[in-house]
Amino acid sequence: MKSGKFHGIGIGPGDPDLITIKAVKILEKVDIVIAPFSKNQSIAYKIVSPYIKGQVVKLRFPMIRDKRVLEGFWENNTRQIKAMLDEGKDVAFITLGDPMIYSTYIYIFNRLKDYDRETVPGIPSFCAAAAKLGISIAEGDDPFVVVPTSDEKIIDKALEDFDNVILMKVSRNFNLIAHKLKEKGFKTGFVSRCCHENEEIHYDLDNLKNQKVDYLSLVIGKKAKQ
Length: 226
Ligand SMILES: C[S@@+](CC[C@H](N)C(=O)[O-])C[C@H]1O[C@@H](n2cnc3c(N)ncnc32)[C@H](O)[C@@H]1O
Hints:
The chain is an alpha/beta fold. The chain has helices at 21-29, 43-48, 67-86, 105-110, 125-133, 152-161, 174-183; strands at 6-10, 32-37, 55-60, 91-95, 117-120, 145-148, 164-168, 186-192, 200-202, 217-223.
């Protein structure tokens, strides 16, 4: 029997209208949609549920740092997806924003090299956030950098070398990031849960000092031109 096709679907930042027509067409026609979740509910599933016609299978991908444990989940979840594909089922794996940016999807995609696979891009969270904030990511010939903020040295280097920075995964060390941006003279924009019901926008990061920052949050920083 011919194996089914594996589709990675970028579903954009959170607004069901910010999904490509191609993504919707695939979600409407596949046999199975894989909805990844870490604790109990799949945020991605909530966004695209109106478009899904087939079966939904929720697979757990915990948000932990232990690489060995994570690999166990990736292996086990890939095994389940392979079984579906081997039965001839077409499968779509939904993922927030764009699938090729800091997404668990990449670890599954890489394990399915022997299968027919296609990735459908999605609007990245930082593009949606820039639109909401009314701040350009970069202008003219200016470069910009995207930084996940777990390593302080990488943050420092980015703030030293670039005038346009996008800081992702900021919830863990938000106060430190806010302090560094201010110290270096960056203008800032913060968006939490961009395009979701309880979206929050701030330009002054001091408004958030010592508050719990949601995991789905990012900061765009721009050094004021002299
Ligand atoms: C694992 S990465 C996934 C990135 C995603 N693939 C993308 O293209 O935007 C998760 C980080 O993306 C950012 N993020 C994702 N969705 C977001 C949203 N709706 N609002 C604000 N930040 C978001 C946050 O910085 C979060 O910690």
